Structures are given as structure tokens and as C-alpha cells.
Target: D,D-heptose 1,7-bisphosphate phosphatase
Amino acid sequence: MSTPLAPGNHSATAPPGPALYDAVLLDRDGTLIEDVPYNGDPEKVRPLPGVREALDGLRAAGLRLAVVTNQSGLARGHFTEPQLHAVHARVEELLGPFDHWAVCPHDDTDRCDCRKPAPGLVHAAARALGTTPRRCLMVGDIGRDMAAALAAGATGILVPTAVTRPEEVAEAPAVARDLPGAVHEILRRMRAVQPVVPRTGRAGTVLVVRSDSAGDVLVTGPGIRAVAAGAERVVLLCGPRGRAAAELLPGVDEIIEWRLPWIDGDPEPVDRADIRALTDRLAGVGAAEAVIFTSFHQSPLPLALLLRLAGVPRISAISDDYPGSLLDVRHRVPVGVPEPERALSLAAAAGFALPADDEPGLRLRHELTGPTPGLPAGEYVVVHPGSSVPARACPPRRCAEIVAALAADGHRVVVTGGPGERELTALVAAAGGTDLGGGTDLAGLARILAGARCLVVGNTGPAHLAAAVGTPVVSLFAPTVPFGQWGPYRVPTVRLGDAGAPCRDTRAAVCPVAGHPCLTRVDPADVVAAVRALAPPPPR
Model:
């Protein structure tokens, strides 16, 4: 827990928050001020360049500010509590007031729940500011800061210094050169999801598109809900791999399932009759406009051409390529933005925004209820070993070792997988879990995950499904794509795996490195520790 060692806590009632964040949490030493080891002297407080102006920019945007700092010097006797108060008073004198100070006074040997990388300080600061961790963003200079933010469900931005290790930079969800750079990115993200020109009335029928896998459809959910909030009717065009996920999304009134050969990972040859039939089907929707959601490496322009031929008068999409007359709204997004925010920013560019009472996280339809046969009695942890992309799957033997380690730690373990993964789940579950492989559809898997204490999974659709139902995720994340863009969104997470492996940012579908080292080397003991951090056992 945090200790209110501060010159004064300011009002703890948060004003109505912006679309993405209510508050920014800041590490102290190396982020706000020069790092002077065990400093108890106010005269040694020296702000880093540009910090005061950056903080004032956050204040002007209506964001609340808290300092979240480990101060083991108290436990070690290097300074006293009054001296720490004096240092913090000097920080506020130079940098302006903070709404809360969250301080861990312990040493590593105390095994407290507040010392970063534990998430306790982030939870405490969010409570003090009248918000939740998922509406907070943490800025710090070392990996402990990022780990604490992720484990609480907050967003993280790393500002490296000379003491930041290269592996901490590789693991960070986002990196800025300094605090002013981080603040620029925070404010840019906030602006990006707000329409420049809000709509004055509701649109008629809007066609939205995400023709991709289940996970891709799930992370587009916030953008689709934003469109639905401003439309009379929403029709979703998706592919066969995303159909089950599309059926779980709020705000969708009708689904059109169609393979798009310029999107599908295993495409059929382009067929003239099929394209003509698709164009006719799109014309039959009678859409007043269309919003084409794509991944960062996909082009919306082939479909935009068909929509023009189908008579859709207004089309919005993200496109780096020159679209000519194919798009009415051509939107651009920097690389690395989380996919749900990328979708929200396109919806905003088209004039749509989430209503004030809708969180920008992932969400499913409320009516997903019903019994799930085969679940063990009591609390359980889920291990999902499979992935539609082989490079992102943890090797089966290592997954079996993880199941054995979790079972040895006293957890009931459920192993899940799709109908084509029964052999895989049987192998992994034999190490000490209950095998539910192939026994449920995606809605059933959502119910299983909603009841779980934690999910252990690679970068695949069930990770986003867990985020949508609020279940913490131990992410065995292969770095073939950026974690900050594709990691579990706004849900407590621990990332494991070698973030600096040679496969980094290759987008490879099959591991290009012999032995799949980024995930083969995951230590099952680290998975057990991560589950304990995210889902601590109840007190005896």
C-alpha cells in the first residue's frame, strides 16, 4: 500500500475524464528530477529539462497528476520522513502541485505489495485520484515502472536514461525520448480519439469493415461502438475467421461474412463473379457511409473501390497510400498505437465518438451467460497453448511444464483450445490440467475466461477475449509484432518472453529463428510468479 508521505494531498474527487485517461502517474527520480541516490536534501532537487512546462500541459488538459515512487532510503535509514516531506515540498515548489504522492518506504527484502514492479502503488494512486488504473497512464524511466503499470492495467510510457537497460527499452509498451516527448504523445493520443467536428445528428446505416481474425475483430470493438453510438444501424463486413468474434460485439445489427482476397492470410484467387456478387451485396446494404478498419499493414483501397461501385457516398479509412477519389476521409496513424485506439481514432476522424459513459476498452455483449460443462470446482487458471499464427505460440512442451508448475503451486488449471487443437490441449493438460480443448465455441470460451482468475496465453485472440471480460493476462508474447500495439489492452498484464529476440518486428507467421527461443526460454517459475502477482491467493 502507498504511504501518504507528501507535503499535502490535493482534492481526490476526479472531474469528468477525457476519453482515454483521467490521470498521469509519474516516477520521481530520473523522470521528474535528477536521480540523486537516497536524497534527503531539498537543495539537491534539480528538475529535468522541460518538465515543468510538460506537467503544466497535462494540467491544462484536465489530467490529474500523481507521483508514484519507491523510496527504500527510508527503510535503510538514509533519510527521515520529515526530510522526505521537505524534498517533496521542494519538488512541488519547482514543478507545481501534484494531486497525490504515492510512496513505498520499503526495501526489496520487505516483500511488500507496493514496491514497484508490484502494482500496489498504481492501485493506491488511482484510488486517491478517484479513478481506476485502466484510466491512468504511467511514465517512468526503468522497467519496474512499466511492469507496475501493466500489472495494474494502466498504460505505460518509458523515458529511458543512462541507467535504463536495453532489455527494459525492448520490453516497454511505448518509449519517448524524455518527459516532454511522453506528454506530447499522451496529448496526441487524447486528441486523436475525439472528433474534430462532432456530428450534429445520427447517421443512417453505416457499414463497418474488419475482415480479419477473431482477435483483430475484438480489438476493433471500441471503434465499432463509437460508430454505433452515432448511427441508426451498423452492418459489419467480416471474414469467416472473424465471424464468431463479430457476433460477440456490442453495437452490430447485421453481419455480412465474405472472404476478401487482398486481406485473407490464405487467399483464394480473385474471382470476377465473386467480386461482382460482393459489390451487389454491398449496394444492397444501402449504407450512407462506410468506415473501413484495417491492420497497419493492410490496404483499404481495394474495398473502397468496390464501395464506390456499390454507390456508398462517404468512405473513411486509414491509408498511407494516395487514395485518389476512393476515400472521403483519409486518416493516418503513427506506428505503434494500440489497435483499439487506432480504431477509435479512425472512427473519430469519420466524426464518431464513444459516449461519455462508455469506457474505451474491449467489451462483449452482456447476454453472454450460461453454464460451461467440464469446469473444475472452485477457482481456476486458464492456459491456452494454441495460436492461429505458429510464431506466436509457446511450444507445447513448455506449455505442459507451465501447467505442471501451476498445478504444483496449488492452482486448478483449465486448458482450452479450438476444435483443431484437441491433440495439443490433451498433451498440455496431461501435465496436471483439465482438458476443455475443442469443447466450446468462442462465446463459451468467453464464459470460461470470465470466471478465471488469470489467463496464460500467447499473442492470439483469447488474450483479447480475456481483456474484453476483464480477466488478467500472463502474456507469453513473441515480439514479431509490437507489444504496445497488440498486447492485452487495459487489463492487468505481465509480459514474459524475450522482447529483444532476433524475430523482433518481423511480422513472421512461422518462427524464423531455430528453436523459437523467444518463448522456449520462458521459465515456468516466472509464469507462477506472474499469476501470483496478478491473482494473489486469498488470505487464509
